[in-house]
Design goal:
Structural class: alpha/beta
Distance between the termini: 42 Å
Largest sheet: 12 strands, mixed
Number of strands: 15
Order of helices and strands: EEEHEHHEEHEHEHEEEEEEE
Helix content: 10-25%
Length: about 290
């Protein structure tokens, strides 16, 4: 593979689809890092041959990976909130993450499919973050998980701002694969298997596909976020420990100060974050409904 920029490698087999795979957008999410390195090793050793199209492999945030932390520094921006649709039309802001996003963005623009490998802070089963449509289903059906979480109304960032959203804004299909908890690398081989199935389906490689046992998936949509107020926020006992905690109408899942947060619909909590020392305005969880 040819290294085109720091920790960005590419190989082409001629005409065909372009696939970009990112790991380490958050440097402490190790499964994506290990998967990208293993795929690179497989290609460079000849075990895996790209016969059509182009495959780009990206370690997205090398500094954060080096320090084994989410961002390159304690006050650095989140790289996966650094992709506004007009990113390349704006002047650089001087941060490492902005510079890195500007380097990666042309690969996202040029790709038919972008796969960004992530993990969650708290325990979670694996799941897909993606728009839901037949063309997206053709891609995410290869991944070993039961759930798809869509965010068509940009609940996460308020506007198009993540790698998958940036890809979608420029005509490609963007998929974020949440592979499990950040420190757990036990699924690397399973993630590689899923990626090989996708690469085969895109005709990048000659590989016998093995359909996922979870090809039909439950579809959820983000509807709201839990934001810390000036009074603070704490989860009620038994809540906020992992993604995909189901709540029902009437459940109290937390408290803004001493005011109960009582739900008036049925749904799931996803991406819960530790509330210790959480700042006013920060997100401590997202809320999703099943479609």
């Amino acid at each position: 593979m040819k290294e085109l920029h720091e920790a960005i490698w590419s190989v082409s087999g001629g005409e065909g689809k372009q696939l970009t795979i990112l790991g380490g957008t958050h440097g402490n999410e190790r499964t994506g890092v290990e998967a990208v390195l293993k795929l690179r090793e497989m290609i460079e050793s000849g075990i895996l041959e790209i016969i059509n199209g182009t495959c780009n492999l990206v370690l997205a945030n090398p500094l954060a990976i080096q320090f084994n932390q989410k961002r390159s520094g304690p006050f650095s921006p989140d790289l996966n909130r650094s992709y506004p649709t007009d990113l390349l039309n704006n002047p650089p802001d001087g941060t490492y993450e902005n510079a890195r996003a500007r380097t990666i963005a042309p690969f996202l623009i040029a790709s038919d499919v972008v796969l960004d490998l992530h993990s969650t802070t708290n325990p979670s089963e694996p799941f897909i973050c993606s728009l839901h449509s037949p063309r997206h289903e053709e891609i995410y059906r290869w991944f070993t998980c039961d759930k798809v979480l869509a965010d068509p109304n940009f609940v996460t960032g308020g506007k198009s701002i993540t790698t998958d959203e940036y890809t979608e804004a420029h005509g490609g299909i963007g998929i974020c694969y949440e592979t499990g908890q950040a420190t757990d690398t036990s699924r690397v081989d399973e993630v590689i298997k899923d990626i090989l199935n996708l690469m085969s389906d895109l005709k990048l490689i000659a590989h016998e596909k093995t359909p996922s046992s979870t090809e039909k998936k439950e579809i959820f949509e983000l509807v709201d976020s839990i934001i810390v107020t000036s009074e603070g926020f704490r989860f009620a006992e038994g809540w906020g420990n992992q993604s995909w905690e189901q709540f029902h109408a009437g459940d109290v899942i937390g408290y803004h100060g001493e005011k109960p947060m009582q739900m008036n619909y049925e749904g799931m909590t996803v991406f819960p974050q530790p509330t210790t020392n959480s700042r006013e305005g920060s997100r401590v969880a997202s809320l999703a409904r099943k479609l």
